[in-house]
C-alpha cells in the first residue's frame, strides 16, 4: 500500500531546490543536464517506452546526496492561455532516496494521448512538448520507503444498498479499506469526498459492489451503452423475461445479452463481451472498429423488439422507449391543416447555438413560417399559401434517450468536426411546456439517470458513462463512473461540470456529454430477480467453462497417444511420397482407424499396458507395443518395442521425445502365442471387447472445488497392469509387415492388400521367408516375387533368394510386398484403346508400376465453358466431368481421355483446354496452345494449379470446337474489335471477336462482322417487345486507334489481315457510315476525336472517337449538326464545343468555330480547310474541343466507416 505523500512535500514547487525545463519531439529520445549548485549534475533522459507506451523520464545524479529529495515532473501546455483555463494538470511526483546515482524511471503520460490531435501539450508549429522538472528536499523518516506514484481518482463515499439492487452485493462502505487517506485540503467542500490514490490492487467489486466490462479493443462505446441499459431496471427485466430456452448459445443476441446481464450481477470480476459480439456476427476486426453508440442503441433495440414478437414480452421495448410526435403544416389564411403522427425512440437535439437543454427543446419545436418563394402547396385546391410548419409532442416515453449533436459537417474544412461548446442540462427535467395537450404531472417530469461521455474528436476517442444507479431515489446523489473495467464513485458536481463541455472548444478539454438518458418519475422501481431457468443454464455454462479451463491447464500432464493396429494398416489407402504405413492424424484430431487415449506422463509402462488393455480388450500379455519413429526418408514405421525398457519406466521418460511432443505414435502387435517367431499373424480389433466398467469412477475433475486432486488411473487398469509380463522381441529378429499385390483384381484400390506381420530371425534367407508366405497364403507351388517398400517411390526387388534378411538390410518396421512371379515375357502388351480410356483401365503388372500409378493418380474436374464475343469465357450449365488421371500423362493423352466422355466432341482435336485460375476461381482467359503442348512438350503436372489447397480436386476447363479443329483455330488470327457506341445499327454491342484466316482481307473481316452483328441483332429482337427499329444500311470501317481515343488511320479494306497490327495499346475500332446518304459528291470519311489543349500545344485526346463522311456541299453548320445528333449531346452543352481540324496531332481553328459567328457557320468545309491551309487527305481528322467528363473518384480509403450489423436472433 502506498503511503500518503508527507505534508512537507504536498507542493514541491513552492520551495524548490532548482527548477528546469526540457523539450523534444513526440516519439523521440531527448535528454537534458542541469547543475544543482552543489557540485552535482542531474541527467534527465526522456524516451517512449515500447512495452507500456508511456513517456518515461529516467533521472540520475552524478554523485549521491545525503538526504532524500522529491522530483516533480509537470507536462506543460504549449499555450499559456490554455494553461490558465485548464482545471487540472498532468503532474507526477516521486520520492528519491539519497543514492540518486542509480537511475529512476518516472512514467509521465501515455504516448497515444500525446499523439491525439489537437493536443494542448504539443505545439502545432514545432511538434514538440515540454516538461517542467522541479527538485526539492524532503524530510522523511529513515524507515519510510518510497514507491512509484499512481494515478488519483476522486471517490465519493455514500450510504445505501448495492447499486445493482441485489442482496449479495458488497456495500459501498467497504471501499475505504482499500484506498489511501484523502489528500484534500480539508475544506467543507470536500466533506465526504477525497482524492483517493488507487493502487494496482484496486478492485471495483470490492470498492463499489459492481463490476465493469472488458474492452475488446475499441468496444468502449458498446460497454457504456450496456452499462446504461443494465441499470435501467425495467429494461433489464424485459431482457430477462425474453424466452430464450430453445436458442442457440452461440448466435442468439437475446441470450448473449441475458448472459452479460447475469454476469454483471453475479461476477466478482470484469465481464467479457466476446460472446455477445460473436452473437452479433462480428469478426475480430469489428471489435477494433469504433462506431456510434446511438446507432448501436437503435439496432440493438430493433433486434430485441423482433425477438420479443409473439412472446409474453411483446411490445415492451416500445412501451419503454417509444414516444409520439406530430409534425404539422397549418395554413395562415385558409382553413387547411396537414399533420402526421410519428413515433421516436430517441431525440436528436442541437448543441451548436444552444446554451442548454431547454434551448434545444425550444429550437426543436420552433414553428417555421413558410412564405414567399417557400410557400406551402395546400391541398383542396387552395394552391400556394403562407403556412406554419412545426412539431408538437403527444407523449414522452418512460425512458427518454437524448442524443446531443456533437458532430456536424464543416464546409470550410470539407469534413465532419466535433462541437466542444459548453452545453448544460439539468438533473431534473420538466417537459410539460412542450406537450401539445395537457398530461399528468408525473408523465412530464424526469430525472437524469446516465450520461454517456465522448472524449476525443471526430477522428476517434473514448467513451465512458456516468450512471446514478439509485436514480429512482431523487435524494440519492451518488454517481459512479463506468470506464470499461474500472468503476469509481464520483461527486455529482464533478459529473455535471465535466460533462457540459469546454468553453475553449477543445483546447483544454475533449470530453463532453454525447447521450443523455432521463427516466420518468416513478419509473425504475421495478423489482425483479434472475429467472431460475436462466440462472441454472448460466451456472451450468460456467461449470463447463471452468472444467474446460482446468482440463486445459492439466493438459501438460498427459500424452496424446495414437495407436495403430492391423486394422489401421489394412485400411490404409492414401499413399504419398512419405506416407505409406497408416494415416497419421493431426495432434488435435484422431483418425477413426487409430486407437486414441490420453496417458498420464507419470504413469509407468506397466500402467500404460493396463490402460490399453482396458480400452481395447486385448489380453494384457497378448500384446506388445512398438514405438514408431520417422526415418531419414520421412516415412514413419514401428521402430522399437516398449518391452525393451524396464516396466517401471515412466511414459514421459520413454515416449516423450522433448517438451514439444504433442502426440505419441505406437503400433499394437497382438501375439497369438508367447513365442510367435516365424508366424504370420493378423487380428481384427472387432474380435476384442473393451473392458468398460459398470459404473464410472468419480472423476476428480467433476468436483469443481477440488482443483488440487491429481488425475487417477482406473482401478481395474491398475489391477491388470500388475499381471503384465514383459514380452521382449527375441534377439536377432525383426518385425516385418507383409502385403500382397494382385494385378488381376479389377478394382485398382483393392489390388494391394495387407496380409499381416511377422517376427522373423534376421539370418533367415529370402527363400525361407518365401516358404513361410507360400504356406500362409496356401500357394506352395507358386513362385513369388518379393519387393521391399522403402518408400512409395522406391520399390526394390529382393532378387537373391539365398541372401539373408540382414544382408538385404531389412530392419524393424519394413514393409515387404509379394506377388506371383512375373518376367518380361509374361507382361501383357498394353491395349492401345486403353490409352484413351484412362489410367484405371491400363495394366500395371508389377508392384513398382502400381505404386507409380498411386503416386501420380489425381482426380481432375473438367468443367465446360463457352466463349462469346460479349460475354467472354463463361461456365456452361452442364455437369462437370471428373476423371482419374496421372500427373505423368501427356497433354494429348489427357485430351484423348476427355474426348471419350464428351458426347458432342467430334474428336480430341475439337477440344480446347483452359487452365484454372486460383485468384479468379475459374478459367483463365488464355487457353493452352495445342502447338506448344502436343507431343511430349507438356504433361498434366504442368497443366494443373499446383497451389490449390485441395490436392485431391484439381480443375481444368474445356471448350468444344464445333466446326474447326484446334489446329485450324490456332492457325487463324483472332481479332477483338471494339464497336462504336454512337452507331444505332450495332444495337448496343460494344465488342466482338473474329477468327480470321491470315490471307483474308479487311473487307472479308468486316463482312463477317456484319453477318455476326445481324445474327446477334435478330436473336435479341426476337426476345424484345416491342421489337427494335429496323437496322439501316451502313458501310463498316476499320480504324486503328491508340488507347481508344486517338484515331491513327482508317485501314484500307484491301489490307490483308496478317498485315494489321495487333497490340494492346492500339485496339481496333469499327464504326459505320450510312450508305443511303444522298448529299451529293463525297469528299471521304474522316475520324473525329475529342480533345482539350491550347492552340500552341499538342492535343490531349479523351473519350471515344467516331467517323463522319464529308460531302462537297457540307457547311460547318451541317457537320456540327450531324456530329451533335450522332453523339446525342444537348444543345446547351454542344454550344461550347469547338470544331477544329487536326493534322499531325495538332489542332487548327478558324476563329471560335462554335457556330456563333455566321461567317464561319455557313462556310463550306472545303473553304474552311483552305483558310486553315490544310488539304483533305488520309492524315486529316476533325476534332471537338471540350473538357473531359469528370472521373468517378473512389471514396477515400484512409478510414472506411462501415455501419453496425447485428444479425437477427
From TrEMBL:
Principal EC category: hydrolase
A Gene Ontology biological process term: protein deubiquitination
Domain USP: 211-521
GO cellular component terms given for this protein: cytosol; nucleus
InterPro entries assigned to the protein according to its UniProt record, in alphabetical order: Papain-like_cys_pep_sf (IPR038765), Peptidase_C19 (IPR050164), Peptidase_C19_UCH (IPR001394), USP (IPR028889), USP7_ICP0-binding_dom (IPR024729), USP_C (IPR029346), USP_CS (IPR018200)
Keyword Protease on entry: yes
CDD domains per the UniProt record, alphabetical: peptidase_C19C (cd02659)
E.C. no: 3.4.19.12
Keywords: Hydrolase, Protease, Thiol protease, Ubl conjugation pathway
PROSITE patterns noted in UniProt: USP_2, USP_3
Top-level taxon: Eukaryota
Reactions that this protein is recorded to catalyse: Thiol-dependent hydrolysis of ester, thioester, amide, peptide and isopeptide bonds formed by the C-terminal Gly of ubiquitin (a 76-residue protein attached to proteins as an intracellular targeting signal)
Statement: the UniProt record of this protein carries the keyword S-adenosyl-L-methionine: no
GO molecular function, one term: cysteine-type deubiquitinase activity
Family assignment from sequence similarity: Belongs to the peptidase C19 family.
The protein, known as: ubiquitinyl hydrolase 1
Species the sequence originates in: Aphanomyces invadans
Amino acid at each position: 500500500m502506498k503511503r500518503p505523500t508527507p505534508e512537507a512535500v504536498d507542493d514541491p514547487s513552492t520551495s524548490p531546490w532548482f527548477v528546469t525545463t526540457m523539450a523534444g519531439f513526440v516519439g523521440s529520445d531527448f535528454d537534458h543536464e542541469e547543475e544543482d549548485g552543489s557540485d552535482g549534475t542531474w541527467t534527465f533522459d526522456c524516451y517512449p517506452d515500447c512495452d507500456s507506451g508511456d513517456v518515461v523520464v529516467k533521472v540520475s545524479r552524478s554523485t549521491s546526496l545525503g538526504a532524500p529529495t522529491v522530483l516533480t515532473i509537470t507536462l506543460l501546455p504549449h499555450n499559456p492561455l490554455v494553461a490558465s483555463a485548464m482545471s487540472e494538470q498532468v503532474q507526477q511526483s516521486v520520492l528519491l532516496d539519497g543514492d540518486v546515482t542509480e537511475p529512476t524511471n518516472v512514467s509521465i503520460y501515455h504516448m497515444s494521448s500525446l499523439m491525439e490531435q489537437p493536443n494542448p501539450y504539443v505545439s502545432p508549429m514545432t511538434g514538440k512538448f515540454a516538461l517542467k522538472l522541479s527538485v526539492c528536499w524532503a524530510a522523511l523518516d529513515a524507515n519510510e520507503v518510497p514507491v512509484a506514484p499512481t494515478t488519483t481518482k476522486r471517490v465519493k463515499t455514500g450510504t445505501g444498498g448495492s447499486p445493482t439492487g441485489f442482496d449479495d452485493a458488497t456495500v459501498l462502505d467497504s471501499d475505504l479499506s482499500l484506498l489511501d487517506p484523502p489528500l484534500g485540503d480539508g475544506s467543507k467542500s470536500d466533506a465526504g469526498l477525497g482524492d483517493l490514490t488507487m493502487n494496482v490492487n484496486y478492485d471495483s467489486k470490492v470498492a463499489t459492489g459492481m463490476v465493469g466490462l472488458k474492452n475488446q479493443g475499441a468496444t468502449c462505446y458498446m460497454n457504456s451503452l450496456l452499462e446504461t441499459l443494465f441499470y435501467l431496471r425495467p429494461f433489464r427485466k424485459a431482457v430477462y423475461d425474453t424466452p430464450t430456452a430453445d436458442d442457440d448459445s452461440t448466435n442468439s443476441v437475446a441470450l448473449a445479452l441475458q448472459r452479460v446481464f447475469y454476469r454483471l450481477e453475479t461476477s466478482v470480476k470484469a465481464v467479457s463481451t466476446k460472446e455477445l459480439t460473436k452473437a452479433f456476427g462480428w469478426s475480430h476486426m469489428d471489435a477494433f472498429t469504433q462506431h456510434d453508440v446511438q446507432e448501436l442503441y437503435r439496432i440493438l433495440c430493433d433486434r430485441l423488439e423482433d425477438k420479443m414478437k409473439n412472446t409474453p414480452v411483446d411490445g415492451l421495448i416500445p412501451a419503454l422507449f417509444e414516444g409520439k410526435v406530430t409534425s404539422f403544416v397549418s395554413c395562415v389564411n385558409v382553413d387547411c391543416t396537414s399533420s402526421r403522427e410519428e413515433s421516436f425512440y430517441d431525440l436528436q437535439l442541437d448543441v451548436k447555438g444552444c446554451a442548454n437543454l431547454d434551448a434545444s427543446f425550444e429550437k426543436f419545436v420552433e414553428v417555421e413560417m413558410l412564405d414567399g418563394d417557400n410557400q406551402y402547396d395546400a391541398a383542396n385546391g387552395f394552391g400556394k399559401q403562407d403556412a406554419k410548419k412545426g412539431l408538437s409532442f403527444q407523449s414522452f416515453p418512460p425512458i427518454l434517450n437524448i442524443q446531443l449533436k456533437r458532430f456536424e459537417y464543416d464546409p470550410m474544412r470539407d469534413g465532419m468536426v466535433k462541437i466542444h461548446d459548453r452545453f448544460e442540462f439539468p438533473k431534473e427535467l420538466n417537459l410539460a411546456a412542450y406537450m401539445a395537450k395537457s398530461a399528468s404531472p408525473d408523465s412530464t417530469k424526469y430525472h437524469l439517470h446516465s450520461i454517456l461521455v465522448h472524449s476525443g474528436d471526430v477522428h476517434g476517442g473514448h467513451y465512458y458513462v456516468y450512471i446514478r444507479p439509485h436514480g429512482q431515489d431523487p435524494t440519492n446523489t451518488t454517481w459512479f463512473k463506468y470506464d470499461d473495467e474500472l468503476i469509481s464513485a464520483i461527486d455529482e458536481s464533478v459529473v455535471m461540470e465535466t460533462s457540459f463541455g469546454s468553453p475553449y472548444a477543445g483546447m483544454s478539454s475533449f470530453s463532453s456529454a454525447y447521450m443523455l438518458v432521463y427516466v420518468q418519475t416513478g419509473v425504475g422501481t421495478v423489482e425483479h430477480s434472475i429467472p431460475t431457468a436462466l440462472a441454472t443454464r448460466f451456472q451450468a455454462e460456467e461449470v463447463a467453462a471452468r472444467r474446460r479451463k482446468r482440463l486445459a491447464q492439466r493438459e501438460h500432464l498427459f500424452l496424446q497417444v495414437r495407436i495403430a493396429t492391423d486394422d489401421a494398416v489394412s485400411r490404409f489407402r492414401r499413399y504419398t511420397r512419405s506416407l505409406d504405413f497408416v494415416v497419421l492424424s493431426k495432434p488435435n484430431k484422431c483418425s477413426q482407424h487409430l486407437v486414441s487415449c490420453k496417458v498420464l506422463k507419470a504413469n509407468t509402462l506397466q500402467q500404460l499396458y493396463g490402460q490399453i488393455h482396458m480400452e481395447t480388450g486385448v489380453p494384457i500379455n497378448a500384446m506388445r507395443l512398438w514405438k514408431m519413429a520417422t526415418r531419414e526418408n520421412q516415412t514413419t514405421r514401428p521402430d522399437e518395442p516398449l518391452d525393451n525398457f524396464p516396466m517401471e519406466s515412466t511414459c514421459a521418460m520413454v515416449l516423450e521425445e522433448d517438451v514439444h511432443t504433442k502426440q505419441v505414435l505406437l503400433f499394437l502387435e497382438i501375439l497369438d502365442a508367447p513365442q510367435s517367431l516365424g508366424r504370420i499373424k493378423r487380428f481384427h480389433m472387432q474380435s476384442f471387447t473393451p473392458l468398460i466398467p459398470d459404473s464410472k469412477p468419480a472423476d476428480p475433475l467433476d468436483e469443481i472445488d477440488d482443483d488440487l486432486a491429481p488425475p487417477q488411473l482406473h482401478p481395474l487398469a491398475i489391477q491388470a497392469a500388475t499381471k503384465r509380463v514383459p514380452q521382449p522381441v527375441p534377439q536377432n529378429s525383426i518385425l516385418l509387415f507383409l502385403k500382397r499385390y494382385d494385378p488381376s483384381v479389377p478394382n485398382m484400390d483393392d489390388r494391394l492388400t495387407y496380409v499381416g506381420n511377422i517376427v522373423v530371425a534376421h539370418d533367415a534367407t529370402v527363400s525361407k521367408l518365401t516358404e513361410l508366405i507360400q504356406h500362409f497364403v496356401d500357394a506352395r507351388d507358386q513362385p513369388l516375387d518379393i519387393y521391399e517398400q522403402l518408400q512409395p517411390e522406391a520399390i526394390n526387388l529382393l532378387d537373391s533368394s539365398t541372401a539373408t534378411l540382414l544382408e538385404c538390410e531389412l530392419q524393424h518396421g519394413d514393409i515387404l510386398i509379394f506377388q506371383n512371379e512375373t518376367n518380361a515375357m509374361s507382361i501383357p502388351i498394353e491395349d492401345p484403346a486403353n490409352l484413351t480410356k484412362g489410367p484405371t483401365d491400363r495394366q500395371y503388372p508389377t508392384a513398382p508400376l502400381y505404386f507409380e500409378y498411386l503416386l501420380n493418380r489425381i482426380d481432375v474436374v473438367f468443367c465446360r465453358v463457352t466463349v462469346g464475343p460479349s460475354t467472354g469465357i463463361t461456365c456452361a450449365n452442364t455437369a462437370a466431368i471428373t476423371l482419374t488421371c496421372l500427373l505423368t500423362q501427356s497433354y494429348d493423352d489427357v485430351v484423348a481421355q476427355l474426348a471419350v466422355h464428351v458426347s458432342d466432341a467430334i474428336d480430341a482435336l475439337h477440344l480446347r483446354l483452359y487452365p484454372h485460375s486460383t485468384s479468379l476461381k475459374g478459367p483463365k482467359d488464355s487457353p493452352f496452345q495445342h502447338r506448344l503442348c502436343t507431343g511430349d512438350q507438356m504433361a498434366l503436372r504442368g497443366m494443373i494449379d499446383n497451389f490449390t489447397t485441395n490436392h485431391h480436386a484439381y480443375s481444368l476447363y474445356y471448350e468444344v470446337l464445333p466446326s474447326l479443329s484446334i489446329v485450324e483455330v490456332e492457325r487463324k488470327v483472332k481479332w477483338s474489335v471494339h464497336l462504336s457506341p454512337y452507331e444505332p445499327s450495332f444495337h448496343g454491342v460494344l465488342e466482338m471477336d473474329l477468327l480470321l484466316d491470315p490471307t483474308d482481307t479487311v473487307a472479308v473481316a468486316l463482312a463477317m462482322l456484319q453477318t455476326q452483328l445481324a445474327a446477334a441483332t435478330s436473336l435479341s429482337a426476337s426476345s424484345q417487345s416491342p421489337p427494335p427499329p429496323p437496322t439501316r444500311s451502313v458501310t463498316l470501317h476499320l480504324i486503328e486507334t491508340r488507347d481508344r481515343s486517338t484515331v491513327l488511320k482508317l485501314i484500307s479494306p484491301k489490307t490483308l489481315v496478317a498485315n494489321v497490327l495487333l497490340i494492346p495499346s492500339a485496339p481496333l475500332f469499327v464504326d459505320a457510315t450510312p450508305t443511303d446518304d444522298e448529299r451529293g459528291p463525297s469528299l471521304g470519311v474522316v475520324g473525329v476525336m475529342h480533345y482539350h489543349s491550347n492552340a500552341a500545344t499538342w492535343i490531349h485526346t479523351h473519350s471515344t472517337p467516331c467517323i463522319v463522311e464529308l460531302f462537297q456541299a457540307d457547311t460547318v453548320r451541317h457537320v456540327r449538326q450531324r456530329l451533335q445528333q450522332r453523339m446525342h449531346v444537348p444543345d446547351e452543352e454542344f454550344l461550347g464545343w469547338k470544331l477544329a481540324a487536326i493534322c499531325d496531332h495538332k489542332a487548327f481553328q478558324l476563329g471560335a468555330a462554335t457556330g456563333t459567328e455566321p461567317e464561319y457557320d455557313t462556310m463550306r468545309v472545303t473553304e474552311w480547310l483552305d483558310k486553315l491551309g490544310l488539304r483533305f487527305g488520309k492524315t486529316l481528322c476533325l476534332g471537338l474541343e471540350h473538357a473531359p467528363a469528370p472521373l468517378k473518384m473512389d471514396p477515400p480509403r484512409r478510414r472506411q466507416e462501415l455501419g453496425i450489423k447485428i444479425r437477427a436472433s
